[in-house]
Amino acid sequence: MLFEAFAAVLSGALSGFVLGLIGGGGSVLATPLLLYFVGVASPHIALGTGALAVSLNAFANLAGHARKGHVLWRCAIVFSAFGMAGAFLGSTLGKLIDGDMLLFLFGLAMVAVGLSMLRPRRLQPGERPAITRKSCVRAAGMAVLTGAASGFFGIGGGFLIVPALILATGMATINAVGSSLMAVGVFGLTTAINYAASDLIDWVVAAEFLAGGLLGGLVGLGLASRLSANKDALNRVFAAVVFIVATYVLYRAGSTLFTR
């Protein structure tokens, strides 16, 4: 029991650290860490527990970005509101999928996350675009799709939300990163509530993971400004880690799934 608590706090710290350091992607490590390091028995419980911890971590990080003026609230609210429906549908479907199949698909999603991290990110503030009704409609449509993916895989989905916001509105990347955290929080909370309704959350592990995540996020945010010139290098290192973990997830889930 003591090791499980230590492992949960350490896993949360690692996930939060990555989120604070490079502005996304850290939540994708939550499910593999909860399953294979902490020892959560069920893939569905790992997904529900991770979604809750990631959601609360995202809201904590949102406050920091809001203080710096990075959040474009109108788009963030529209994206979050419409994405809730997608997150609910996605998480409902995820609960119906066989656990090993869901993990295998999750491994493929991790590969997509790793590939997205290899793209250079320009974080200069730039000019804020005018948010028009047309851009909000585009954002709403993309929100439903990204929310569904986020709910299905039980992850924050920041790697999907950031490019979706940029494509829909033309906002600068730093504003997309800040604004995406509201959607990450809302999508994760919607997923967690859906999983909680089916008793698929380990509340104690979620609290331990969250405690570690808040601490790791503070350290990551503090280090981010010092290493801002090396963000692309950090993204590549993180992508390599994600590919390694994805390979392991695909192997574990695939070996069980295809040898039944």
Automatic annotation (TrEMBL):
Q: Which domain of life is it from?
A: Bacteria
Residue ranges annotated as coiled coil are none
Q: What is its main location?
A: membrane
- Segments spanning the bilayer are 36-59, 71-89, 101-118, 139-166, 172-193, 200-221, 233-251
User: Mind telling me what this protein is named?
Assistant: Probable membrane transporter protein
This chain's source organism reads Pleomorphomonas carboxyditropha
Q: How does it sit in the membrane?
A: Multi-pass membrane protein
Q: Name one GO cellular component term.
A: plasma membrane
Q: Top-down, what is the taxonomic lineage of the species of origin?
A: Bacteria, Pseudomonadati, Pseudomonadota, Alphaproteobacteria, Hyphomicrobiales
InterPro entries referenced in this protein's UniProt entry, alphabetically: TM_pro_TauE-like, TSUP/Inactive_protease-like
Indicate whether Transmembrane appears among the record's keywords. yes
Recite the UniProt keywords alphabetically.
Answer: Cell membrane, Membrane, Transmembrane, Transmembrane helix
Per UniProt, subcellular location reads as: Cell membrane; Membrane
Pfam families, alphabetized: TauE
Q: Give the record's family classification.
A: Belongs to the 4-toluene sulfonate uptake permease (TSUP) (TC 2.A.102) family.
